[in-house]
């Protein structure tokens, strides 16, 4: 944690409204991106972000300062997003379509041309379970064991779900890229 | 955390995802800020709420204990009975035989006989249960004597007196205080269920209020007896009660209110009662009545005193709100607990057999002590807002006893109707 982060946290703990706003402005955009990846739409993302920041401010006392503040806030956002998803769908992996995992090929060219907004839009099109596993493993960097614990599934399930999620995402990206190319032509 | 694999696809995906940082809507921060303020306010609110409720409970408990141990206005009949006991003795030519043991009035209180404790469980006794004096001994009965013995109760029912009795007296109800509020800056007029809260104080804030109120009420008691030989009447009585009510207003239910209250009152009520009974003395052997006569008992100036505590649960709604005024209606249930009861009778038992066989009368006190009963209430009131925090309330109360005034085994049943006015002060947190 940087010196300025520490000061900011201390001021927030004292109930300084200006410091709270500064902390919010510092991380709001980044965390909004995180929320978008888990949410179904913009409205859901807004709800998760709002709920997440309320948790951040009310639990700031528990922040020990032994790691970056951003990582701590991100973890809260991810947990809030997962709670949000779980509350909405009881079984995350219930209605997932069958995907032929062998039949996926990534075109490196596509990935190079892909914009960040495109990727997030594609991720948002994934089924809830795939979305959660993909975000947690590929983007947040959790291990399959950790992902399994967070989602209440086994490590092997997490692994297989991730493979299927990635395949599905690549299909969506390829499809989107083709559409874009077609529109350009 | 896993070691991030050197997977170009994943790395690229992660970079792209991290690069996506859209600016959130302005409303997000406003909502976060508002939520943080509310949490702070809630902490303060809960502190004061629990403080006030805690103090109220302590005061209520203290007053209850005090009232439970405070002296009675009248000496209870049970106490009167305990002070002395009377034996009525029938004497024949050969020996003096104890006929009956009955509670009686001490010499100095012979003019205040109110009730005499029954000595038989099965009342009235059936003919075959009576022990009678043999026919050939009837002539031997020459006189009746009354012997007073303190602290001694004997039962030698060689002669049982048949008697129909039960003199009992009921209790009083009370009102409830109404609920909703019309605080300053309320909307001009709305009907039928107005949001009477100030527009500055809408939402989750300031939904809890405290009402301190007092009511002046008249009690009308309706008495019925299954015993046709008895008749009872109670005069209307006025009394004042005081209560503390906690009121919660639902933010999303058109200001529907719930209230919970605690209170006390005392009641003095005069009664008149009379009964006609047949008193007989039977021969133990033959079963033929030796002496038999109608006994007419008339209590003309009796009075009873009760001290009650009550718990209210109510629901209310504002009907009309206009500027600082609101008109509210509420209904609820009051559970009353009779803490203390005492009664006195101002008349003697005008019967020559009084000392012989007035033993089946139930004690008034035994029916009245420590009894719960429930009343339904309807209150309409007008509230005037003085400020954001204070309002005055005045209204009309009515209540009707849902449960009977006496225990089921009693021949006497009482329902109470109460009607009166209330006034109080509301503090809104």
Short structural summary:
Chain A has 185 residues and is mostly helical. Chain A contains nine helices and no strands.
Keywords:
heterodimer, A: 185 residues, mainly alpha, globular, B: 429 residues, alpha+beta, eight-stranded antiparallel barrel, three-stranded antiparallel beta sheet, elongated, disordered N terminus
Of all protein chain pairs, which has the greatest interface, and how many residues does each chain bring to it? Answer: A-B, 41 and 29 residues
- Please work out how many helical segments of chain B DSSP would assign: 5
SSE series of chain A = HHHHHHHHH
Largest sheet data of chain A:
none
Number of strands of chain A: 0
How many helices of chain A? The count is: 9
Q: What percentage of residues of chain B falls in helices of 4 or more residues? A: 10-25%
Distance between the termini of chain A: 49 Å
Strand order of the largest sheet of chain B: 5-7-8-9-10-11-12-13
Largest sheet composition of chain B:
8 strands, antiparallel, barrel
Shape of chain A: globular
Tertiary shape of chain B: elongated
Point out poorly predicted stretches of chain B: 1-6, 72-130, 141-205, 346-368
Number of strand elements of chain B: 13
H/E series of chain B, N to C? HHHEEEEEEEEEEHHEEE
How would you describe the oligomerization state of the chains in this entry? Answer: heterodimer
Helix residue percentage of chain A: over 70%
What Rg of chain B is obtained from the alpha carbons, in whole angstroms?
33 Å
- Cα-atom Rg of chain A, whole angstroms? 18 Å
What do these coordinates show?
The complex is a heterodimer of chains A (185) and B (429). Chain A is built from 9 helices and no strands. Chain A has helices spanning 3-13, 17-38, 42-58, 69-88, 108-113, 116-124, 128-139, 144-151, 155-184. Chain B has 429 residues and is an alpha+beta fold. Chain B has helices at residues 8-19, 26-69, 77-83, 354-357, 364-368, and strands at residues 85-91, 96-103, 143-149, 189-190, 208-225, 230-234, 237-249, 257-282, 289-322, 325-344, 372-385, 390-401, 412-428. Chain B has an 8-stranded antiparallel beta barrel with strand order 5-7-8-9-10-11-12-13. A 3-stranded antiparallel beta sheet of chain B has the order 2-1-3. In chain B, a hairpin with a 4-residue loop joins strand 1 (85-91) and strand 2 (96-103). The chains are: A mainly alpha (185), B alpha+beta (429). Chains A and B meet through helix 2, helix 3, helix 5, helix 6 and helix 7 of A and helix 1 and helix 2 of B.
């Amino acid at each position: 944690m940087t010196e300025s982060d520490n000061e900011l946290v201390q001021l927030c703990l004292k109930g300084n409204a200006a410091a709270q706003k500064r902390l919010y402005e510092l991380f709001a955009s980044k965390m909004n991106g995180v929320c978008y990846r888990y949410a179904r739409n913009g409205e859901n993302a807004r709800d998760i972000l709002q709920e997440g920041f309320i948790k951040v401010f009310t639990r700031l006392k528990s922040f020990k300062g032994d790691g970056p503040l951003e990582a701590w806030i991100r973890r809260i956002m991810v947990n809030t997003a997962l709670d949000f998803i779980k509350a909405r769908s009881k079984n995350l992996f219930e209605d997932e379509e069958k995907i032929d995992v062998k039949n996926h090929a990534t075109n490196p060219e596509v990935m190079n041309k892909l914009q960040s907004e495109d990727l997030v839009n594609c991720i948002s099109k994934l089924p809830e379970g795939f979305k959660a596993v993909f975000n947690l493993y590929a983007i947040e960097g959790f291990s399959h064991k950790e992902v399994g614990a967070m989602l209440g599934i086994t490590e092997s399930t997490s692994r297989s779900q991730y493979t299927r999620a990635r395949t599905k995402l690549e299909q969506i990206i390829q499809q989107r890229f083709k559409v874009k190319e077609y529109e350009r032509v | 955390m896993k070691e991030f694999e050197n997977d170009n696809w994943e790395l690229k995906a992660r970079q792209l995802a991290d690069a996506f940082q859209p600016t959130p809507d302005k409303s997000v921060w406003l909502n976060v800020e508002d939520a943080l303020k509310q949490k702070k306010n809630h902490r303060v609110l809960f502190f004061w709420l629990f403080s006030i409720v805690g103090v109220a409970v302590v005061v209520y408990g203290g007053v209850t204990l005090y009232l439970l141990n405070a002296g009675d206005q009248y000496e209870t009949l049970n106490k009167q009975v305990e002070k002395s006991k009377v034996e009525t003795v029938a004497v024949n030519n050969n020996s003096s035989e104890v006929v009956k043991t009955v509670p009686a009035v001490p010499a100095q209180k012979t003019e205040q006989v109110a009730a005499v404790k029954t000595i038989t469980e099965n009342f009235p006794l059936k003919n075959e249960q009576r022990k009678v004096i043999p026919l050939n001994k009837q002539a031997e009965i020459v006189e009746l004597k009354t012997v007073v013995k303190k602290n001694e109760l004997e039962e030698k029912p060689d002669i049982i007196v048949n008697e129909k009795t039960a003199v009992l007296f009921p209790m009083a109800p009370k009102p409830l205080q109404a609920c909703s509020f019309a605080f300053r800056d309320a909307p001009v007029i709305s009907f039928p269920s107005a949001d009477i809260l100030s527009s500055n104080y809408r939402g989750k804030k300031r939904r809890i209020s405290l009402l301190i109120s007092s009511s002046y009420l008249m009690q009308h008691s309706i008495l019925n007896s299954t015993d046709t030989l008895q008749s009872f009447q109670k005069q209307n009585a006025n009394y004042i009660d005081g209560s503390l009510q906690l009121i919660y207003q639902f933010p999303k239910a058109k200001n529907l209110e719930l209230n919970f209250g605690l209170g006390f009152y005392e009641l003095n009520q005069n009664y008149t009662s009379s009964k006609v009974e047949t008193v007989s003395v039977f021969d133990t052997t033959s079963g033929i009545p030796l002496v038999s006569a109608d006994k007419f008992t008339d209590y003309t100036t009796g009075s009873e005193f009760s001290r009650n505590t009550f718990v209210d649960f109510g629901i209310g709604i504002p009907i009309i709100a206009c500027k600082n005024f609101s008109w509210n209606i509420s209904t609820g249930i009051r559970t009353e607990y009779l803490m203390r009861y005492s009664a006195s009778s101002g008349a003697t038992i005008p019967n020559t057999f009084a000392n012989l066989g007035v033993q089946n009368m139930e004690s008034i006190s035994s029916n009245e002590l420590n009894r719960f009963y429930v009343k339904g209430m309807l209150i309409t009131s007008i509230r005037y807002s003085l400020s954001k925090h204070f309002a005055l309330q005045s209204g009309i109360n009515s209540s009707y006893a849902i449960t009977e005034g006496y225990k089921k085994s009693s021949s006497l049943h009482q329902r109470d109707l109460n009607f009166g006015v209330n006034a109080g002060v509301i503090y809104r947190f």
